[in-house]
Amino acid sequence: MSDDQEGFTGVRRTLERHLRGSTDSQETLVLSDDDGYVGDTITFKGRNLEPDQRYEVVWHSVQGRWGVLQANEVVGQQYQPRRETILTVTASASGAFNETWTVPEDYGGTHRVELQKGGTTVARNTFDITPWFELKQTEAPLGEAFTIVGYGLGPEATTNNYQVVWDTGNVGFMTGVMNRGTATAQIRAVGPPGPHTIQVWRNYRGIPYLQNNTQSPFGPVAGGRQSQWTVEVTERDDPPETAWVEGMFDESPISLHYPELDEDTDATLEIAPTCGQPGTAAILTGTDFPPNTEVDLVWYQHYGQGIRGPDVTTKPREGVLPTVTSDADGRFQVEFEVPLAEGSTRPIAAAVDGRTVAVTGFMVQPSIERFEPTSGPVGTEIEIELSGIGWTAYENAPYFVYDNKPLGYACGMTDEHKTTTVEVAFQASGQPGYHFIDVYPSIFEMQEDEPEVEIKPHLSYLDNHPVRPLPGMHMVFEVTE
């Protein structure tokens, strides 16, 4: 073990001794186990208590979230203290109690447990949650998915970033920043049909550390519980769907991304629906505008060279929305089709005499605009065009994975040519049969250095991605003879 590792272990042991600590009281709290997993049942044993007195068992943990500035710039993982009363007990006539408790979904690591009487701590102990992983199925038809759920992840960087490997190839990472350390990932069942392997590794650097289970100072992945499986990919009964986007979420635009008003009036803009893909039919309604007055409706795009370049700004995009005239009550309504556009919030403003007096927005969601061809021999160039890819740091870099092998990322930024779609091209490979292209969200840039999760396929994107959940996109190419 290195000096750094020994130092870390020493600090951890000192902290645990401090947490276990002692009080001036003789009252005692003992746990049947010092450590365990989410879902385990343990027993709290109170001794030397005041007979027939009421006590509370208080559990200390944290609440996690992604720190994000202006709903765009990802700072990193942030955790705040959290405490909750998990048991209320009454000591027996002999001054004791035994109470069983099931460890809930919570973050891994050391948790302080306090025994309190009237709000005063009279005894304390600790319990360590060890992360573990559950594979929901060991057999799936070609093109379907294997689901992995991780419990007790984080919050430390060393135990919050886990990598999932398919057939000794790293697919991407999963993390439990939110949902109290629980994270879900789906791994495509790719060919050929037959046995394959899935394994979970751990490393704050975002790539598998191959000494996890042999020489890591943090012990084996999952504390010795199963973290590698042999699975079976079976033949399909029918051809797979060619291309699809996962189910969309009902969401609202982010007002932080609206331009400022030139004049504060009673005029309002409302849009229905508030979200959707390009091509969605939307109705824009204005109220409390000046009567019988022309109103210029303006669709805005976010414009710039990229997150690492000049500042991103909003600029009007001509030809999307019309000029309308309010009626005698200052009201108007217009229907339009959401155009091909960059994703996230698209501000929509209403201007009277060149001054912006009302603003709303539409949340543009991802769409597969073009995927061709869908079959051909090895070496065929596959062309993919996506729309609705946002400019923000948490959605700007969709990551392409081919047969569970990371291929690379694309960028969803609007440039000086007003490009509103993402276009990529690459060559088909593999044996004759179906091959699967998955597009996962990633985090383009993060202020904090650890854990290193920038521009990597985020497999737990549905329940642990910053700001808003983003859907995955999937395509199937058939390699012919």
TrEMBL record:
This is Uncharacterized protein. It comes from Salinirubellus salinus.
